[in-house]
Amino acid sequence: GNLLNQAANLTALVPTKTCFSTADKTALLIQMFEEQKEGIVFKKLSAPYRSERARDQFKVKFVSEATFIVTEVKPKGKHSVTIGLLNEASQIVSAGHVSIRPCIKEVKTDDLLDVRYLYARRSSGHIVQAVAQRIRTDISREECTTAQLKYKEGE
Asked: How far is it, in rounded angstroms, from Cα 95 to Cα 126?
């Protein structure tokens, strides 16, 4: 079947109205952000739908950033680390893993790492679509708490 016939069963895709003026587009962007949606796509009205990147559409993701504790560095060649945060009892709980971009050098266990992410899952505490940003040396480990997390709406 086509996508429109399946729309009632989709939970990740939220159809919305089409906006034409800059003011209306800005208002919709703010509304989607305030409703804690994952993001919004702007596209040329004449452009066909494409799931991949295209010049005639622009995706805005409403990401968050938090500082995590590196709990494990993966073996050579894996370029990822396991990260965690301190819970209310000051115990480390897992927040998942994040790939380390080549521009971030020599990440070690117990480093504090800023990570940009889409949202956290309440069920696991793990973050989704994580992207490492930088190593932090200007804050303390005690600031790396689960209170920083933005959770997915409705979870």
From this structure: 4
